[in-house]
Amino acid sequence: MFGYFLELALRSLKRSKALTALMVLAVAMGIGACMTTLTVLHVVSGDPIPGKSQKLFYPQIEPRDEDNGFYTKGEPPEQLSWRDAMALLKAGRADRQAVMTGGMAPVQQADTTQDPFFVRARYTTADFFALFDVPLKYGHAWSATEDDRRERIAVISSSLNDKLFHGEDSIGRTVRFNGADLRVVGVIETWRPHPHFYDLNAGNYAEGEDVFLPLGTSRDIHAPRSGSRDCWGKGHQVEENTLETADCVWVQLWVELDTPARVADYKAFLVHYSEEQLAAGRFHLPVNVRLRNVMAWLDSQKVVPKDVHLQVWLALGFFVVCLVNTVGLMLAKFMRRSAEVGVRRALGASRGAVFAQLVTEAGMVGLAGGVAGLLFAVLGLWLVRKQPDQYASLAHLDLPMLAATFGMAIGATVVAGLLPAWRACQITPALQLKSQ
Amino acid sequence: MLDIRPILSTLHRHKVTAVLLVLEIALTCAIVCNAVFLVRQRLDWMQMSSGVDEAHVVDVRPVAMGGTLESHGRIEETLASLRNIPGVEQVSLMNQIPLGKESWNAGIKLDPNVVAPAMHVANYYGDNAIPTLGGQIEEGRDFRPDEYAWLDDITSGRTDVVIPHVVIVTRFVADQLFHGHALGKVLYLDDIPMRIIGVTRNIVRPNVFDRATTYGSIFLPVHMTEGLGATYVMRTKPGQGDSVIKAAAAKLRELDPNRVILSKRHFSEVRDAFFASDRAMANLLVGVCVALLVITALGIVGLASFWVSQRRRQIGVRRALGATRRDVLRYFQTENFLLATMGIALGMVMAYGINIVLMVHYELPRLPAAYLPMGAIVLWALGQIAVWAPAHRASNVPPVEATRGN
């Protein structure tokens, strides 16, 4: 029966090509716009590190002498001072922990005359790679001992490895970073979590770094820092190379806590640490700690751009207009065929059969609209990728969105077909036959 | 206008289709009004004045490998060499440039005993920064050479150097904090009292966290050192920007081969980059508006064609009874006008509804009333254009149609 309905639907659609094309176009444009914006939303609000985001936490404490209320609005600062970060790192109360900050410096292969170029770098501690499940292609991460010895070593990205060493196993080779020679100990696979959750100072959707080196080493070689630094009290009068002792926050700490009990313990530890510092006269403001996991942290930082939400609403509005349009056209189309429906009813087709046939026809418009909508979405995403925003380059159609496109197109047009089909079923066969 | 009653009774018989068309026009009207308003907002924002002599300012940003250049003599030498490049009017090594996105900020206080700063401002450093940017001192004077101190001397806490105690503020800061009479007043920066010796025409911040303080900038007599985002800013003679950029980049490398040029830009590029995502959003909104209007027009064409083909016999009867082609044409045009009017009326209510939601969630101002008549005119015109072809076809129905079956 369904096959017969399909055949009838095809014939009917072929009969009024312009109207059919118009309906398909309307559905396709609506679907295309929705899918484009929803894919962007999906990309920008996604979990940057699925499977682990619930276990990674970002400790914040209040070390300042006054809260000027502008940047933080009742929240502790977004980063930690060197002294606090090191104290929390050495305490080792979490399953894994890493302190880090970002930088940018010229890099070149040590033994060539190749011109240096700028890369983004991360200065961090040993656990970074295990903490964030960073996949290694060659070699291995460094150890805490190498951190302590401030060894001149680096882990590089595979794209930098391609540029400097033509993709070969470069373990043991040397890169010159900001004028200092560093021995490559590891090469990571392509790794770009988005949002760039572990350090939003780099930009919410920044690309991954190309060079990773021990935090201590970065201080020794005066590697340039990039990112924010917020100071208070005498902290304003401080130089970059004495930041370790300054009243400034400029590093981030991430910790891994595997069970809720560990999380509670860690939070208690942060409170205890703050109280100790307060008692020692180092801290001045009331204890104020935060321990957010990845998604809560991103949420608190309002990472998803407002424009993206606006675009989704705009596209949904557009889609609704397209659907209303389609309902109107379909109604016109079905009513035009009153005579045909009358004949079929008179020949014994049940109301249900006529209804099913018309809904099938609507569904076919949806299917065609879905296919064309997919093309529009691909085109739309291509346009999005041409945009200047940092997240733009991430906008690609993925499988769930692809399935959603068809689901939405067919679902919406079938719903849009219900009213016209129902109206058409109400036709009294006798009346239609008489008017012939 | 005589046709209105029969039209209404016909529409009554096609309630569902008529309602759908009205709804479509209403939604389109509501969305287009708000989208155009959003575009207007973006365009206004993008046309904001930076206070910089945009056509003539360029900047070249070097970074030295293996540590920053901090020798004062070398920086003075570099500045002098850049000043000698043909086409250069002024040079400054600045810590940041307007609309450059990376910013140095500070809280200024009027009373050192109050904890919360009176305003958060961007603090510009650099020799002759204001004339280099093409800014204008409106009141008071620019800094004297003896008022400057080196940034690294200040941050290293040397006590034997002069620490600046004078400051120049923008017109905006003067108006906001001193009711326009800022000259000679004192503000506190890191609890150090600073006397205001000049007020400059508004110069925008490098980034705008809060549009209420777009022009919250101050200038300090500080000689910048290289590194930390410092960039050589030059004001050039007309048409010499390209050659100056090229010569300056070459000069910087020649003076110190350890330097790498991180960026070299005309100010127009800085401005374009700053507004890039606003421009993209405005384009998107315009695109959606056009698509909506096209879809709505096509919908009108489709439904009107359907009605015309359904009413061929009636039209024939009317023609046979003496109606002219013009009358038939006018009938469909009036019908469309009525539907559009209903759609527009409903659309205006919806437009305000959407605007209220946008006001709550996106901090948008109220939709100015002028948008509604404009929206109405656009949709009326759209309806008339769309209905023209079907109506024209209807007017061509011959009177003989009345005698045919169906």
From TrEMBL, chain A:
The keyword Membrane applies. GO terms for molecular function: transmembrane transporter activity. It is found in: Cell membrane. InterPro entries: ABC3_permease_C, MacB_PCD, Macrolide_Exporter_MacB. Pfam families: FtsX, MacB_PCD. GO terms for cellular component: plasma membrane. Coiled coil: none annotated. The chain crosses the membrane at residues 310-332, 353-382, 402-422. Keywords: Cell membrane, Membrane, Transmembrane, Transmembrane helix. Signal peptide: none annotated. It is a multi-pass membrane protein. Residues 315-429 form the ABC3 transporter permease C-terminal domain. Residues 20-265 form the MacB-like periplasmic core domain. This is FtsX-like permease family protein. It comes from Luteibacter pinisoli. The lineage of its organism: Bacteria, Pseudomonadati, Pseudomonadota, Gammaproteobacteria, Lysobacterales.
From TrEMBL, chain B:
One of its GO terms (cellular component) is plasma membrane. Its main location: membrane. Pfam families: FtsX, MacB_PCD. The chain crosses the membrane at residues 16-39, 284-308, 337-358, 370-389. Residues 290-399 form the ABC3 transporter permease C-terminal domain. Keywords: Cell membrane, Membrane, Transmembrane, Transmembrane helix. Belongs to the ABC-4 integral membrane protein family. PANTHER family: ABC TRANSPORTER PERMEASE YTRF, MEMBRANE COMPONENT OF TRANSPORTER-RELATED. This is FtsX-like permease family protein. It comes from Luteibacter pinisoli.
